[in-house]
Design brief:
By secondary structure, the chain is an alpha+beta fold. It folds into two domains: 1-91; 111-218, no CATH class. 68% of the residues lie in helices and 12% in strands. The chain contains five helices and four strands, in the order αααααββββ. The protein has helices at 2-110, 125-130, 133-142, 150-160, 167-179; strands at 183-190, 193-200, 203-211, 217-218. A four-stranded antiparallel sheet has the order 1-2-3-4, covered by helices on one side.
């Protein structure tokens, strides 16, 4: 009877030890599973973080490229605007100069009707059309002349116009067109005034005095 009790005790002890072993194994398995799960979760989190960081970098790169493109576009547009503005300014200046040229020619030829003859500015049309009025006008404004004051500029032009290189040829044509006379000699008097001779009855005779500057001549 005592022997039977001992055997039962040993059996119970063995069963208990076996249960503990299984429980430990289960516990170990559980721990292993938990470790694996945590590792897998950490890996997934790292992958998501890397992906998120990559997306952020890509977005920042796109934003930077867009910003650079916009800046380049703004520079090009600014350059185009400046060039257009410059071109517009040139056109405006040219138009303004042409307008002044037309006005001063019209004033000298047609606009002095109320002035006494002695006070009129007198020019040859051929000389007036050929002289560089634009250049003289620019110098006129540099010298302090009032812009668009046509009468004042006309006086300035008459006093300061450069003498044309071919003024004698232009004058000879003017004289012939007016009187059908040919010039045989031109003699300098003073300043821009010249004595002009024609041939009459086989002799050279003084005929008119001409201004080399304006082309105007008188007997």
């Amino acid at each position: 009877m005592k022997r039977i009790r001992i055997i039962l005790s040993v059996a119970i002890l063995l069963g208990t030890l076996s249960g503990c072993g299984n429980q430990k194994a289960t516990s170990n398995d559980g721990k292993t599973d938990n470790t694996t799960t945590v590792t897998e979760s950490a890996t997934d989190a790292d992958t998501k973080d890397v992906s998120k960081t990559s997306d952020t970098i890509e977005k920042n790169t796109k934003d930077e490229n867009k910003k650079n493109n916009n800046e380049s576009k703004n520079i090009v547009e600014s350059k185009d605007s400046t060039e257009k503005s410059s071109d517009s300014s040139k056109i405006k200046t040219s138009t303004s100069d042409n307008s002044v040229k037309e006005k001063v020619i019209d004033y000298i030829i047609n606009g002095q009707v109320n002035k006494p003859d002695a006070q009129k500015l007198k020019w040859s049309k051929a000389f007036l059309n050929k002289v560089d009025i634009d250049a003289v006008y620019k110098q006129y404004t540099v010298d302090g002349g009032k812009a668009d004051d046509i009468e004042n500029f006309a006086n300035y032009l008459t006093q300061n116009a450069p003498t044309l290189d071919d003024w004698q040829e232009l004058f000879k044509k003017d004289l012939y067109d007016a009187y059908k006379e040919k010039v045989v000699k031109i003699e300098h008097l003073k300043d821009d005034s010249y004595q002009v001779y024609i041939e009459k009855d086989g002799s050279q005779v003084p005929y008119v005095v001409v201004s080399a500057q304006t082309g105007y001549f008188h007997g």
